[in-house]
Write a structure and sequence with these properties.
- The protein is globular.
- Helix content is about 80%, strand content about 0%.
- The longest helix has about 40 residues.
- It has one domain.
- The relative contact order is 0.13.
- It has nine helices and no strands.
- The protein is an all-alpha fold.
- Helix 1 runs antiparallel to helix 2 and helix 6 crosses helix 8.
- The protein binds protoporphyrin IX containing FE (HEM).
- The site of protoporphyrin IX containing FE has 23 residues, from helix 2, helix 4, helix 5 and helix 6.
Length: about 250
């Protein structure tokens, strides 16, 4: 259930990227990218603008294809499909990372030096994980390939998680108004928080064997999965009604 809800949420996020950034580009209104964040589109910096544009294309591919690679039955039954999606995924990860890094160098982020560092490290780790995952698969070292592929997946979902975590923050701020005052420190934490915990979780997954869990442990895991699924569904609904949905509509309508 958690995987299905997360994937659906990712599909809506990818639809937003394709419809808004792609739709406005095709309609000759790429300057509207700046409605999402200032200076994403800057005619005076064609290299930075192209880099962030390439990173949009690659990023939406990552969000759509990542979960498909995790379906064990598909890997076993149609291994060539896993290999081909893997190649596209690794190239897209490298492109998203390099495109994002080029934008940081050329334009800088909205959050200044700390965000430049947080996002820069994120991009560098993504390029590293994509390269290592590919090289180990090519050499037949599947244990190491699996480890780097899990790290890569944990990083790529970070970009989606970043929006979900901000959505959660806005919701909490509305419920407990005073939280909004701490926006500055929250922003500072968030430039790392959307990928460092995922990487730590990935290390646990890489090392975890299949253990026999007790009935109460199974119940706790189920409760966690249902709560996390409900939460992600709720935040996605909020984002879709307030941001992604209207942006999808405005990107594809003239
Ligand atoms: C799954 C991969 C990724 C996706 C789907 C993605 C998506 C996006 C989107 C949609 C935006 C525009 C803002 C918005 O509408 O929310 C954005 C901005 C940005 N992304 Fe990514 N991204 C991904 C990976 C990366 C990576 C690896 C880097 C690392 C260098 C990166 C760096 C940036 C930067 C620097 C911006 C502009 C921030 C600013 O102007 O302050 N992204 N990304």
């Amino acid at each position: 259930m958690l995987a299905a809800v997360s994937w659906l949420s990712g599909v809506i996020f990818a639809a937003y990227i394709i419809a808004f950034f792609g739709g406005t580009l095709v309609g000759g209104e790429a300057y509207r990218w700046n409605e999402a964040l200032p200076d994403l589109y800057d005619p005076a910096s064609p290299l930075s603008t192209s880099a962030i544009g390439a990173h949009f294309v690659a990023g939406s591919i990552l969000v759509l294809l990542g979960p498909v690679q995790l379906i064990g039955r598909l890997r076993q039954r149609i291994p060539w499909l896993h290999r081909w999606i893997g190649r596209i995924y690794v190239v897209s990860a490298a492109a998203a990372g390099v495109g994002g890094l080029a934008f940081i160098v050329g334009q800088g982020t909205i959050g200044g030096p700390l965000m430049d560092v947080g996002f820069g490290l994120y991009g560098a780790l993504m390029v590293l994980s994509a390269t290592m995952s590919y090289l180990h698969a090519r050499s037949g070292r599947y244990h190491s390939h699996r480890a780097w592929a899990i790290r890569l997946f944990a990083l790529t979902i970070g970009s989606w998680l970043y929006r979900i975590e901000y959505g959660a923050w806005f919701l909490l701020s509305r419920l407990f108004g005073s939280l909004a005052e701490f926006g500055d420190w929250f922003d500072a934490i968030m430039v790392f928080f959307f990928y460092v915990p995922n990487l730590i979780a990935a290390e646990f997954v890489i090392r975890a064997g299949r253990k026999n869990r007790t009935a109460s442990a199974n119940l706790s895991v189920s409760v966690f999965f249902v709560a996390a699924s409900t939460f992600i569904a709720f935040v996605t609904l909020m984002f879709t009604t307030h941001t992604w949905g209207p942006k999808i509509a405005s990107g594809i309508t003239p």
